[in-house]
Amino acid sequence: MRLIRLGLFLVCAMPAVMLVAGLFLGNLGVNPIETLLNQSGVWALRFLVLTLAVTPLRWLTGAVWVVRLRRQIGLWAFFYAAGHFTVYALFEQSLVLATILADIADRPFILVGMSALLLMLPLALTSTQGWIRRLGRNWKRLHWLVYPAAVLGLVHFFWIIRANRWTEPLIYAGLVAVFLAWRAWRRRPVIEDRD
Ligand code: HEM
Q: Is the dihedral of CA 10, 58, 82, 138 positive or negative?
């Protein structure tokens, strides 16, 4: 398991390493900051969708061990989302709170992205064994927030789609819809036929 975790760590860190290396080597295209911003956002969403895929994958395959990788994948989603926000705040807004607030008023999709990140924050903070123990049953309730976070991330993505770039967001939206529907179906009350 430790080897699988290490392998997962290296795979998940790869996009960040490539982006930072690309920045220093100057091969992130004509607008490196835009590439950094968009790529970190897309990777945040990809890892978020992957986190949601873990439970259906366990149900489908019976492989219980995949659940033990969920925490790491979720933390990577948060890492890329936090990096995405840092790139935005630092390079687009020069860390000036007033301009960030003005931008929120001007471009509502920014508010949607921020809401997604804010929902992800308590999930990342309470992902440790200690918090799982402390929160008990409420831990599962709290971590259900991963679904609205993913939906908000998707809305944020759809809001800024440029021409002919529908395929990727549509795939993620389809996956999230399937995972949500499956969850709801698994939780349905079983009505017994008493005749
Ligand atoms: C504080 C939070 C956030 C801010 C301020 C923010 C801001 C931005 C900005 C300025 C862009 C570029 C828009 C453009 O090119 O016109 C962007 C793109 C994007 N963001 Fe965010 N975002 C935030 C949170 C998130 C989160 C939490 C996710 C995912 C879960 C996310 C996913 C994306 C995606 C997928 C894109 C599009 C990338 C592309 O066009 O290739 N963002 N965001």
A: negative
95-105 pLDDT per residue, tens: 999 999 999 99
- Element at 164 (helix H, strand E): none
CA of 155 to the centre of ligand 1 (A): 10
Give the pLDDT confidence of 53-89 residue by residue, as tens digits.
999 999 899 999 999 999 999 999 999 999 999 999 9
State if residue 81 touches ligand 1 by the CB under 6 angstroms criterion. yes
- Length reported for the chain: 195
Tokens of 98: 């007033």
**Distance separating alpha carbons of residues 32 and 8, to the nearest angstrom:** 27
CA nearest neighbour of 151 among 176, 182, 174: 176
Cβ–ligand 1 contact at 42 (below 6 Å): yes
Q: Is 169 in the pocket of ligand 1 (CB under 6 A)?
A: no
d(CA 52, CA 23): 30
Residue whose Cα lies nearest atom 1 of ligand 1: it is 114
Span 13-45, pLDDT tens digits: 999 999 999 999 999 999 999 999 999 999 999
Q: How far apart are CA 178 and CA 99, in angstroms?
A: 38
Residue 45 alpha carbon to ligand 1 centre in Å: 9
Interval 158-195: pLDDT, tens: 999 988 889 999 999 999 999 999 988 887 665 544 43
